[in-house]
Specification:
The complex is a heterodimer of chains A (368) and B (347).
Chain A lengths: L1 H38 L2 E4 L5 E4 L8 E3 L2 H10 L6 E4 L2 H4 L3 H7 L19 H6 L4 E4 L1 H5 L9 E3 L8 H15 L8 H17 L6 E10 L2 E5 L4 H8 L2 E3 L7 E4 L1 H7 L3 E4 L5 H5 L12 H4 L3 E3 L16 H10 L6 H15 L6 H8 L7
Parallel strand pairs in A: 3-4, 3-5, 5-6, 7-9, 7-11, 11-12
Antiparallel strand pairs in A: 1-2, 7-8, 8-10
Chain B lengths: L1 H35 L7 H13 L7 H36 L11 H16 L5 H24 L4 H25 L5 H9 L8 H20 L1 H7 L3 H6 L4 H23 L5 H13 L3 H25 L7 H23 L1
Helix pairs in contact in B: 1-3, 1-13, 3-8, 3-11, 3-12, 3-13, 4-5, 4-6, 4-7, 4-11, 5-6, 5-11, 8-11, 12-13, 12-14
């Protein structure tokens, strides 16, 4: 009899726990839903396809943004950048800080040490920043920040290597989250840029020129962007053919391969600047045999609110800048400078001085 | 009976000679063939004309880029690949003989990881500019060897196992330090460079690189070749070595020192190229037998042939450079499995 009682007790406990367990999520979801309607939170679908409950724009007072180039888009969207309390340091080191200062005078006070060079966040340090929302980039950055009770928004549009669609998606999502009107949006800017580019290139009747997107040249390792990369879009919109199209993605290549391609133009993204190659100062590399060296057509990709070689808020300027370099007879440097200035006054409501514009467009200096 | 033995000895000697001639001839053929192939398109006739023009000291106008590619890009690359292959293989064969262990390779004393760390540090500090990367790579390669020897000395037991275990400790420390460098390196620029570099490559190597490594590698190879008899004697055991007038300690240190110099110089110029120093001595042993008199030169020639072929594949197959370390592992590991399988069958 006694043992029957014990078994009954055990069974009761098991059943209670099981029912409680089954019911729990439903109850929680109802509560959350109630809270949601009370505080006015919204459900959004981020670029990773996750459904995220985000607070109203007015309630987002502390923003942490780990994905570097998306910070530039955020700066173009919100009028009060002081709400950014944490960011990836690269958001500022890969940009012209003078321009960033114009939009965000306190950028230097933003906490950046919680994200390592490997782009992984220190969860506890992140929590210390008490963010209302966190913007991250893909699964690698997600680990450690999920299940913290903070709304996290994935900005990675998986498998999309088109800077146009990627930046428009970033911009639209940001505008939705921060409830900002889209009368001035990256979509409009891309449309204008595409129209201008096509209009200018329409007058060209010659053979298409070739170009190379030199990702970096560091420590004797030359790596380039082949097909399936951002270079596809940059070159296509600039009336250029990617000399490295036979390569897929980013890869290391030899000087012999560069001689074989012998591109008309070389656009240098990061690493050793164009001047190092134009002065033939790279160990083990003879640049003087290339046409781009002889024609002085090796250029550093400028850095505005972010580097123009990556998708960012300045991205619609990149193809026009490339046209001004590759086909100056179709779009002169002074014409591009004007477009550059107009873009900034529309997008960021700031006026860039002639000196600053020239500084952004001038080559990088050789360090060390 | 004596006559038969004498005949056999002469026959064996002739065989060895023939094998060396064949290996040397094959190496020459492979090098010449390698000169003809590359990503920059050249007609065979033009290559021949350019070589002829170079040998007779006349210029071949209109082919400046082709000439540069042939003599300033391909030639130094082939010569460096030859030296690295030969060096790593002879170092591997010597160390396998010294430690009486067929699983020993040139990185057993931690030299590769030390050199790799030095190069990674150089890329981090100077973005690979100047000679700092090479100096640090060579320096840390030597430091790792001294650390291993120091640990063996501190333990007081100069046995094979002490060397191997000390080498494992040093390798682990420098591997961890390399990981630390990768962790703090710029994720977009320096990190891919360090990763590409560590995987091994002869891309963009020039005569200046050859000038830096030729002395240490040739010196190391010459030293090991001179020690080939001591290596034979060392395999008989310490007492026998003493009785035959060989100081086993001194010989051991000399072999380790020469192997280290070769390995560090190889890593310095090409990054970490694994498996060559492990597999090639085994193949050479199959061809030449266990006598170091024939084994060491054969390893050297075969290593050179192997590396020149692998580098030709790396630079011809695709427009993107295939890291040498990947190819040597892909070819070396299955080959080694085959040899290992046969060894098991024999035992």
């Amino acid at each position: 009899m006694k043992s029957n009682k014990i078994w009954f007790l055990i069974l009761s406990i098991v059943l209670t726990v099981a029912f409680a367990g089954c019911g729990a999520p439903e109850d929680a979801s109802v509560t959350e839903s109630k809270n949601s309607s009370e505080s006015g939170t919204r459900m959004i679908t981020d670029l990773g396809g996750n459904t995220v409950t985000v607070p109203t724009a007015a309630e987002i007072q502390r923003i942490v943004i780990i994905s570097p180039p998306t910070t530039s888009v955020l700066l173009g969207v919100i009028s009060d950048p002081d709400r950014i309390v944490g960011a990836n340091s690269r958001a500022f080191t890969t940009s012209n800080t003078e321009i960033v200062s114009k939009l965000f005078p306190n950028w230097n006070g933003v906490e950046t040490s919680f994200v390592s060079e490997g782009f992984v966040s220190n969860t506890e340090e992140l929590l210390n920043l008490k963010p209302d929302i966190v913007f991250y980039y893909g699964e690698a950055q997600k680990s450690g920040i999920e299940n913290l009770g903070i709304p996290i928004v994935d900005m990675m549009k998986k498998g999309d290597n088109n800077p146009e669609t990627v930046t428009i998606a970033w911009d639209n999502l940001m505008r939705k989250i921060f409830e900002v009107d889209d009368s001035v949006s990256l979509q409009n800017e891309w449309e204008a840029s595409n129209k201008k580019g096509a209009e200018v290139l329409d007058t060209y009747t010659g053979e298409k020129k070739t170009a190379l997107f030199l990702f970096s040249n560091t420590g004797g390792v030359i790596s380039v962007y082949g097909s399936g990369t951002y270079a596809d879009t940059w070159f296509e919109k600039s009336g250029l053919v990617n000399a490295a199209a036979e390569i897929s993605g980013q890869a290391e290549v030899s000087m012999e391969q560069l001689y074989e391609w012998n591109p008309d133009f070389i656009y240098v993204f990061i690493g050793s600047p164009a001047s190092a190659m134009l002065n033939n100062k790279m160990n083990g590399q003879d640049w003087d045999l290339l046409s781009a060296y002889k024609n002085n057509t090796i250029f550093d990709i400028p850095q505005g609110i972010y580097s123009w070689g990556a998708p960012c808020s300045d991205a619609p300027l990149t193809p026009l800048w490339m046209i001004s370099k590759s086909y100056p007879e179709l779009l002169s440097e002074s014409d591009f400078k004007m477009l550059f200035q107009e873009y900034y006054s529309r997008m960021y409501k700031i006026t860039l001085e002639e000196e600053l514009i020239s500084a952004v467009l001038s080559p990088r200096q050789l360090q060390k | 009976m004596i006559m038969i033995k004498k005949r056999k000895t002469i026959k064996t000697k002739n065989n060895v000679k023939l094998k060396f001639i064949l290996l040397a001839g094959l190496l020459f053929l492979v090098m010449v063939a390698s000169l003809f192939g590359g990503r920059y398109h050249m007609e065979y006739g033009d290559v021949l004309k350019l070589i002829e023009a170079k040998l007779s000291g006349v210029s071949y106008p209109g082919f400046e880029v082709a000439e540069h590619v042939l003599f300033q890009v391909r030639l130094p690359r082939i010569l460096i690949a030859l030296l690295v292959g030969a060096g790593l293989s002879i170092a591997g064969a010597s160390l396998q003989g010294l430690f009486q262990n067929p699983l020993v390779s040139p990185d057993i004393l931690g030299v590769c990881s030390g050199s790799g760390f030095g190069a990674a540090l150089g890329i981090l500090l100077t973005s690979g500019m100047g000679v700092m990367t090479s100096v640090l790579s060579l320096g840390f390669g030597l430091i790792s060897m001294f650390l291993t020897l120091f640990m063996v000395r501190a333990k007081g037991q100069a046995q094979t196992m002490s060397y191997i275990l000390s080498g494992i400790i040093v390798t682990s420390v420098f591997s961890a330090l390399t990981s630390l460098i990768k962790y703090v390196a710029d994720v977009n620029d320096q990190l891919p460079t360090i990763t590409f570099w560590l995987m091994g490559s002869f891309a963009n190597k020039e005569f200046n690189d050859l000038k830096i490594i030729i002395l240490p590698i040739v010196m190391g190879i010459a030293g090991l070749l001179l020690l080939r008899w001591q290596l034979n004697i060392l395999s008989l055991g310490e007492e026998e070595a003493y009785s035959l007038g060989v100081n086993p300690q001194a010989a051991r240190i000399a072999v380790i020192l020469f192997s280290t110099i070769i390995t560090a110089a190889c890593v310095m110029v090409s990054g970490i190229v694994g498996w060559v120093g492990l597999v090639i001595p085994h193949i050479s042993r199959r061809i030449m037998g266990v006598n170091h008199e024939g084994l060491l030169p054969a390893s050297m020639l075969l290593g050179g042939i192997f590396m020149v072929i692998v580098d030709s594949v790396a630079r011809n197959l695709t427009a993107a450079e295939i890291p040498i370390g990947i190819l040597t592992a892909l070819i070396g590991a299955p080959f080694f499995a085959l040899i290992y399988n046969r060894m098991k069958g024999e035992s």
